[in-house]
Amino acid sequence: MNIHTYEKVWLVAAMVLIVGFIATITYGSVGLGITMVGDQQPTIEPSEISDDERFGEPRVEHVGENEYEAYVVAQTFAFYPDPIEVPANSEVTFYVTARDVIHSFSVVGTNINTMVIPGEISEMTVEFDEPGEYGIVCNEYCGPGHHNMEGQLHVVPEDEFDMTELSVDADDELELGDEATFNVTVENRLLDDLETTAALEIGDETLEEELTVAGGDLEETTFTVDTNDLGEGEHDWTVTVDDEEESGTLTVVEELETDEETESGNGDDDENDDGETDGGDDDE
Ligand code: CUA
Predict the structure, then answer these.
(1) Ligand 1 centre and the CA of 76: distance in Å?
(2) pLDDT on residue 203
(3) Which of 63, 133, 183, 230 is in the most buried spot, having the most CB atoms within 10 Å?
């Protein structure tokens, strides 16, 4: 049988392509571990995401030395948390689920790309060696806002990364002579201990307190300021811990307006300010 030369060339080329395709698919599934979404993770009821231990509060968690887990929720038309912040030189496992319809989680300029399906949890482990900022886009058509669905992934330098959260509980309004208290809570969500300084600035005063917050724990401290030192008026205050900052305003008045009649008996207060007596008259 005589086979034409061109016929032979095409036969061989077709065989090479077929073998090549099978080889790349095999390498992808065995070598690179590319799998279908949801193969490794249990399913999740989309209506129960808000109560879910992992996805109820989308966030990044520190789980080991240089190891992080990011719990991400995609919904029309945003990703949570946004931005996702992780340190450089880390290994991050993303767990992504959808609250409503099918989305995708694609980090532009990287090979991080997965479908996100309601009820399923997509898992990917990625190493970040260098700091950088990446856009996250949705590349599954998910509704009229699909083209606006985007997020940010920030890989920050290791020494700039922290997982410190600050909250301050402070008085809004006080009488002269009262003691103003600022209850400061510092939460350290890293596994390593955090040595830091909490600082309160109010008026000309700066108060500082050294704090050591154990990994995964929180520490409280209280600053007190004598309102006599501040004087009457509005005083802006700021509490800082590392890069975290919280601020507010404390108003100090000569006498607070109260609903109940109180015998304050402050005999040393000789000044008679007409404006302040109005409140007292209304109560009677
Ligand atoms: Cu979400 Cu397109």
Answers:
(1) 7
(2) 83
(3) 230
Ligand 1, residue 140: give the atom nearest the CA. Answer: 2
DSSP 195-231: EEEEEEEETTEEEEEEEEE-TTEEEEEEEEEEHHHH-
Per-residue tokens: 195? 């040595």
Q: Which residues contact 38 (CB under 8 A, 6 or more apart)?
A: 117, 120, 121, 122
pLDDT tens figures, 205-250: 899 989 899 888 989 999 998 888 888 889 999 999 988 899 999 9
CA distance 67 to 82: 20
Per residue in 87-96, pLDDT tens?
999 999 999 9
189 HSE (CA, 13 A, CB side): 13
Q: Which residue type does 141 have? A: Y
**pLDDT score of 259:** 62
